[in-house]
Amino acid sequence: MALVQPANDTGAAAPRPQLTLPARCFTDPDLYNIELQRIFRRSWQVAGNASDVAEPGTYLTCRIADQDLAVVRGRDGELRAFYNICQHRGHRLLNGKGTLKVTITCPYHAWAYGLDGRLRGAPNAENVPGFDPDSVALASVRVEEVGNLVFVNLDADAPAFEEQFPRVREELAAFAPRLGETQFHHRSTAMLDCNWKVAIENYGECYHCRHAHPSLTAGLIDPDAYRVELHRNHHRHSSAPPASGITLYAIDEAAGDHSREFAAWLLWPNISLQVNPGGNFCVFQYLPDGVDRTISHVDWHFGPWVEPAERDRIVEEHRRDTMQEDIGLVANVQIGLNNDGYDRGVLMIDQASPQAGYSEHSVAHMQDLWRDAMGEAFTDI
Ligand code: FES
Ligand SMILES: [Fe+2]
Fold first, then answer.
1. Quick one: which atom of ligand 1 is closest to the CA of 110?
2. pLDDT tens-digit profile, the chain (381 residues)
3. For 188, which of 29, 201, 281, 298 could close a Cys bridge (C-beta 3.0–4.6 Å)?
């Protein structure tokens, strides 16, 4: 779309609205492969729930940006992450999650690694001249615990989580003081027929809420009170309850001071940590699975104050309503991005209410972060 900028009476250029990224940024497989390298291999991603690796010897596995990883709690209590690959001939080491007896033993030729990743033994090694077992170790990956989650980052030089997302840990703990008592309950997964950016941009703005999410705006948030506050690499979402009161969740004041409010921390590029009224904790992840396919996981964590039947009701209603509504929205956007009749549109950034949830300033910011992450050749897109 070509925007002609008319001069005003003083001869100065009229304000220029900010445009979306061109459609090809959401449809080009070559760009997608660059994104995997420059964005997903350099950002903090959720590996799993900290409760799965709380005890010495426990482990979990995950797949981040096409890479198989394992997170292991050592006998020394230290949490470590590794590429889940044997250093002999490359067999995958661990599956799922569980508890290790003494070592990580490769299923192929039984090389055995300590829980610190160092090789402890290789059958017949004594008869291989020059082979030095002490020089062999699993390739390690950065790992951090945040709240009840484990995050990993494939980039050895990436800034620490706290540097990347200042104060998020602290704010989350202050907002949901009983977060530590919540436990993972259920994962809702959907395959989205869209590029990952379509999915996170959709999460990131509430311009569509009133129109497209009737149950959300009736029973959870007030779209007029919804705020999105921008930080360098994350957004803080918040909303007071709707005027009619909260109907989607049973509210137990025991959940903490903010038990009637909604808050979320959207972490660039693809994650949101969301605290719902009642202190229920949700982790949203939008995982790229091809240029026009995204895996959406919503992990639900509940505190002991939420009755089992209530937990199931909350999960089911979200899956049936909001999730389903968004599945349709993002798939239809991707259809449009592939259509010759569309290239780019105007982002509706509300200059009068800069933090309003119905403004698309958050989308503009994510697109700026995308340009920065992709490098010089993309600066002027
Ligand atoms: S590939 Fe692991 S021991 Fe051979
Ligand atoms: Fe939505």
1. 3
2. 444 444 455 666 778 899 999 999 999 999 999 999 999 999 999 999 999 999 999 999 999 999 999 999 999 999 999 999 999 999 999 999 999 999 999 999 999 999 999 999 999 999 999 999 999 999 999 999 999 999 999 999 999 999 999 999 999 999 998 999 999 999 999 999 999 999 999 999 999 999 999 888 888 899 899 999 999 999 999 998 888 888 888 887 777 778 888 999 999 999 999 999 888 899 999 999 999 999 999 999 999 999 999 999 999 999 999 999 999 999 999 999 999 999 999 999 999 998 998 999 999 999 999 999 999 989 889
3. 298
330: CA distance to ligand 2 center in Å?
9
Q: How far is the CA of 237 from the centre of ligand 2 (A)?
A: 13
Atom of ligand 1 nearest to the CA of 111: 3
CA 298 / ligand 1 centre spacing (Å): 35
Q: Where are the domains positioned within the chain?
A: 48-146, 169-377
Phi and psi (nearest 5°) for 259?
Answer: -65, -15
Query: Which residues line the pocket of ligand 1, CB cutoff 6 A?
Result: 86, 88-91, 106, 108-109, 111
- Looking at domain 48-146, does it have CATH number 2.102.10.10? yes
CATH code 3.90.380.10 for 169-377 = yes
